[in-house]
Write a structure and sequence with these properties.
- The protein has 555 residues and is an all-alpha fold.
- It is built from 26 helices and two strands.
- A two-stranded antiparallel ribbon has the order 1-2.
- It starts with a helix and ends in a 20-residue tail after the last helix.
């Protein structure tokens, strides 16, 4: 028995961790306790050198000294302030009116606003709860199928996990030892494609089953055009002019096609449309409808924030940490402009940010304890030998890893997957010659399913907390409405989990969706800046690397 334990210490240690997690122990404490327990067992059997434990304080300090992780509280705070300042409500109301006249219009609006909220908040909980509170009652009021309505809200909220500035991408970049800016750049296109796939599913459902996603009735279209073709034509002309101006300006600046090109073109286009709308109103013209004016004005704040955060990161003016700090400051300014900033709002946002940041930090410290022991008993060699020996080379490895992550997502959330699984499989992917940015984005898309998996998906829990549990009277129509059952929420999530797995396959089959980040020309990140600082004044010798507690080391 002892010989068996000695020979299989690494797999036994890993399986023990899985058992601890399934028993419901807190992740951070399960990781740390498992690491310390097997360190003592390893010392007793002569498999683990006691000197390894002397490196533990340095590894914990490496977590505390990691500047990249500062972006997590900044982006979390930004998202919470924006969610409580009413930006999501304004967006959903206006975009819902814009798309409302067509079948499935409210669902399209939820997807569109979900993508915008993802690009400004980066927090899944804030997006799902906001859209659940605002959109779900309206969709139920006008006859949407409950499964479709709940599924599209939960899925659109999880776009915050893949569209920058995603917290998942920050953690993924940290664990893989790569630039957060490059990870953001590489994930931008897959995030937009995933949103388009959601919209394609809504189009399919509304075409085959029109009663599941009806259009808004005329009496509900409070911002509809009154003057017909002239105003619609003027809006079309303004949109085309704004798009052409945006494209021309960004092209003239010499920015190559990529995520930064798209973000900056959209931003310049919206600013142009905003200026044209202001001039239109100042001159007293009546070419644009209330709808057109409202759409332009409601789109300026989020797209301005997207440029401030993502645009500055993509073009190399700011690190992700600096971008997050600017975003948090801008969110406070927007709340002041909406006259919704209060001490209570700041207190709630600060407390929630502190809780999430502490949660992430403690998991990371526990993961450092676990990985120290796991590496000390040669667990990394066991994982490497196991995965490298898979048939099919790179393709076989990628298929196996994606299936493994998909299955584990039923039981673990994305933080647990990122801190436990990614450090084990990242070095193997690097050894096989797989680009780690592409690999990280693929895993991030896969990990989205952890939010949508019945019965433990967190997005489903968030939606369940705000969806009506009992029959209620609708405030507008005074009709008695049936509740949304947990079963309906779960079944509504299934088609979107399938779409997410299709997106994983698309990233695997068309790597250029991610690999375009290499041609972006701009890359600025906290760790790269630190490396440049280390190498100052040492042109002929390589400076010793500072240990950030990241494996593998930055190349």
């Amino acid at each position: 028995m002892i010989a068996f334990i000695i020979h299989n210490m690494a797999p036994i240690m890993f399986m023990s961790l899985v058992v601890f997690l399934l028993l419901g122990y807190p992740v951070a404490f399960a990781l740390a306790a498992n690491g310390l327990l097997f360190a003592l067992i390893g010392i007793e059997f002569g498999l683990f050198q006691p000197e390894f434990l002397q490196a533990l304080p340095e590894r914990v300090y490496g977590v505390m000294n990691n500047d990249t992780l500062l972006a997590i509280p900044f982006f979390t705070f930004m998202g919470l302030v924006l969610e409580r300042s009413g930006m999501a409500e304004d967006l959903l109301d206006t975009i819902g009116q814009l798309f409302g006249p067509i079948r499935g219009g409210l669902a399209y609006a939820v997807i569109f606003v979900g993508a915008l909220l993802a690009a400004t908040t980066g927090v899944v909980a804030a997006s799902v709860i906001s859209m659940g509170l605002i959109s779900l009652p309206i969709m139920l009021r006008y006859g949407y199928d409950r499964r479709l309505a709940s599924g599209v809200i939960a899925a659109s909220g999880t776009l915050a996990q893949i569209i920058p500035p995603s917290l998942v991408l920050i953690v993924m970049a940290d664990q893989l030892g790569r630039s957060v800016g490059d990870m953001y750049n590489g994930a931008f296109v897959p995030g937009l494609v995933l949103a388009a796939l959601y919209a394609g599913y809504i189009f399919l459902v509304s075409t085959i089953w029109p009663s599941a996603a009806p259009a808004l009735p005329a009496e509900a279209q409070t911002l509809r055009d009154d003057d017909g073709q002239t105003r619609r034509f003027s809006l079309l002309v303004m949109t085309v002019v704004a798009g052409v101006v945006g494209y021309a300006v960004i092209k003239e600046l010499g920015i190559k096609p990529g995520a930064d090109f798209v973000v900056l073109t959209m931003t310049v286009g919206v600013v142009t449309a905003f200026i044209l709308t202001v001039l239109h109103n100042a001159l007293g013209l009546k070419l644009l409808s209330r709808m057109a004016t409202q759409v332009v004005f409601v789109m300026v704040p989020p797209l301005g924030l997207i440029f401030l955060v993502l645009g500055t990161i993509f073009i190399g003016l700011a690190t992700p940490t600096e971008g997050g700090a600017m975003g948090a400051a801008c969110a406070i300014i927007l709340a002041v402009m909406k006259r919704r900033l209060s001490f209570d709002l700041l207190r709630q946002a600060t407390e929630s940010t502190a809780k999430l940041s502490a949660f992430v930090l403690f998991i990371l410290v526990g993961a450092r304890v676990f990985s120290l022991t796991f590496y000390g008993v040669d667990g990394h060699k066991w994982v490497e030998e196991l995965l490298v020996a898979l048939p099919g080379g790179q393709v076989g490895f990628l298929i196996f890893v994606n299936i493994l992550v998909f299955i584990l997502a039923f039981f673990l959330d994305f933080f647990e997957l990122a801190f436990i699984i990614v450090p084990l499989i990242g070095p193997v992917a690097d050894k096989l010659g797989i680009d780690l940015i592409w690999f990280g984005v693929m895993l991030a898309v896969n990990m989205q399913t952890s939010f949508m998996h019945p019965p433990f998906g967190f997005a489903l829990f968030y939606l369940r907390s705000v969806a009506p549990k009992l029959p209620y009277l609708d405030k507008i129509t005074s009709r008695k409405m049936e509740p949304v059952t947990t079963e309906q929420i779960y079944w509504g999530a299934v088609p979107f989990v399938v779409i997410q797995m299709i997106m994983v396959a698309l990233v695997l089959l068309f790597p250029q969706m991610v690999m375009h980040y290499k041609s972006g020309g701009h890359s600025l990140d906290d760790k790269k800046t630190m490396e440049q600082f280390q190498n100052l004044g040492t042109p002929d010798t390589e400076a010793p690397a500072i240990d950030f507690g990241v494996a593998p080391k930055i190349q």
